[in-house]
Every structure is written in C-alpha cells, then in structure tokens.
C-alpha cells in the first residue's frame, strides 16, 4: 500500500483544484499562496496560506526523483511531467528564483480532443494527409499549440497505418495507439536531446514524427532533412505569424546556408497554423487562427526571401482555405463570441481589423 506524506497529500490537493476549478495552470512560490490561472487570469486560491521556503523545498523533495533532484541543483530548473492517479497529467517546471524554489504546473487533459471539439477549423485535417512534409504550429506560450498538435497526431492515429514517433520534453498528451504504432520519447529519460532523438528516427522506420519544440539549429536542420526524405513532420515554434515563422527558421542559420534553407522550406513546407486563445464574452476561451498553406505563390516568396509579402497571399487566398489572424478575429467579433477590445488586444494590425469590421 502506498503511504503518502502530508506534503504529498497537500500538493495533490493543489493539483486537484486545477481540474476542479477549470484552471490551466498552478503556480507555487515562496511568499505567495498557491495561484491558479483561469481563462488567462491569475487568482490566489481562497483560504490558502502563503507558502514558506520550507514548504516549497519539501514539495520539490516529494515530487522529484533522485536524478531530477541532481539536475535541479546542477541546472537550477527542470522540466518533467506528473501523473495524478491516471486522472490528469501536468507539464511541470521547478526552478529557482531569488535563491528559493518555485514551480509551475500546466494541466494536460487526459482526453485528446478533436479539432471540432477545440473549435479549430476541420480543414486543418488536410495537413495530416500527405506522406511527407513539414507542418508548423506557432503562437505564444499557453495558447494551445500542444493541444492542436495532439489533435492532428491523433487524427493520423485513427485514420491510417503508420509508425508515429514523438520527441517531447516532457511527454504531454499520452496517445492510445489505434491504427498506428506510437512511440513517445521523453528527452533526458529516453533520449539525450532533441536532435539526437530526431536523427535516430531515420533508423527507426518512422512515418510521422512529432517534435515538441524546435529549439536549436541542429534540430531544425534535421527536421527539414526528415521532411525531404519521406517523413511527415509536425513541430511547434514560439512565433507570432507565418511570415515571422519562416524568417525565424532561416535566420537561425549562418548567412551562407540561408539560401539552401529557403529552398528546403519552399519544397517541404505544407502549412503553418498560428493561433491565439482569446477570452469569450461569456467566459472561457476560443481560438483565433491564421492558416497558411504552401502553394506556388508562397513557395516562390520563400525561395526569393520575400516573406513580407506572405500576408497578402493569405488575405487573397481565402477560397483555398487560408485565413489571416485579423479575419479570424473579425469573424469572432461579428458572431458575438468575443468583444472588439479583446480582438484588438490580439490583432497584429488594428487598422486592418477595423476595416474588416466595417
């Protein structure tokens, strides 16, 4: 029988609060009570005392294994996942600030939702159909990239017979294999780093590869090569729109390699989804989405380094399923789902937004 300490019982009660109160995140820090993020806003947990240095140290000691404790001391932060009795999973980060331990926990729902359940356009399933290419999901932290990624991967899982490999830090959504074989590799536990795990997929007979995050030049370079050599690659980046995403990828490389990278991207890119979770007028959040598909016009602009013209292609290619972020925001305002003020908060061009709303 598992015997839990008082610290573990208390900590688990904090995690249970996240699920019960519809929060996305839990923050624990010395000198503050536990804090929940609900619909993007932070709320202290009512009736809870401020956490002491001793309490935070005890929590870290209770939830980390010996190897993780050593990494925390060495690197002063650590990413890992927590499973709460099989009911919920949390992407977790324990770190030092001002010499004290703090922690942040992001709830990962146990059920992988479909694009329809996420209020995302079902047309995005088209990006799962090719046998090879590069699909990027972008946007700020905490705006649902991992959830959209999981929906696309799970659609592949239920629609064809493939070998899917995910490379994550840490593993977030746990997939239940259906028509596919799914191997989920966690960096530091199952692999030393992203690029080594990604290179190994060439010898592991993978069809579809999900890269949790493209953090460095080696990972981006290997992902582009994998997309060229018969693999369907899904990855995330913290960028604001399609044009910025392409520039970010190209700019990672030294000047003498950038033309080659543009050629590879022009050839392998299938599409870029850029998303924001926006507050509904009636509570909760809804995604606003920019969608870029790689057609001949986009491919030529990437090749020629004219990414500043990509927004114009998106705006004039609505019949092909492309959508600008402003168009998506304006549509949500017109349907009464979000307020004009909320749309303006997330718009990258407020003047254009006002024109669309006339």
Structure description:
This protein has 358 residues and is of the alpha/beta class. It folds into two domains: 103 residues, Beta-Lactamase (2-Layer Sandwich); 236 residues, P-loop containing nucleotide triphosphate hydrolases (Rossmann fold). It has 13 helices and 13 strands. The strands form two sheets. It has a seven-stranded mixed β-sheet with strand order 9-8-10-11-7-12-13, with helices on both faces. Strands 3-2-1-6-5-4 form a six-stranded antiparallel β-sheet. A hairpin with a 2-residue loop joins strand 5 and strand 6. The longest helix has 15 residues.
Shape: globular
Total domain units: 2
According to CATH, the fold-level topology of the largest domain is Rossmann fold
Could you list the spans in which at least 5 consecutive residues all have pLDDT below 50?
A: none
% residues in beta strands: 15-25%
What letter string, H or E per element, gives the SSE order? HEEEHHEEEEHEEHEHEHHEEHHHHH
Count of individual helical segments: 13
The CATH architecture category of the largest domain equals: 3-Layer(aba) Sandwich
Q: Gyration radius, to the nearest Å?
A: 21 Å
Structural class: alpha/beta
Give the proportion of residues in helices: 25-40%
- CATH C-level label of the largest domain: Alpha Beta
Please provide the count of β strands.
13
Major sheet summary line? 7 strands, mixed
**Superfamily (CATH H level) name of the largest domain:** P-loop containing nucleotide triphosphate hydrolases
Mean pLDDT metric: 95
In the sheet with the most strands, the strands line up as 9-8-10-11-7-12-13
* Beginning-to-end CA distance, first to last residue: 65 Å
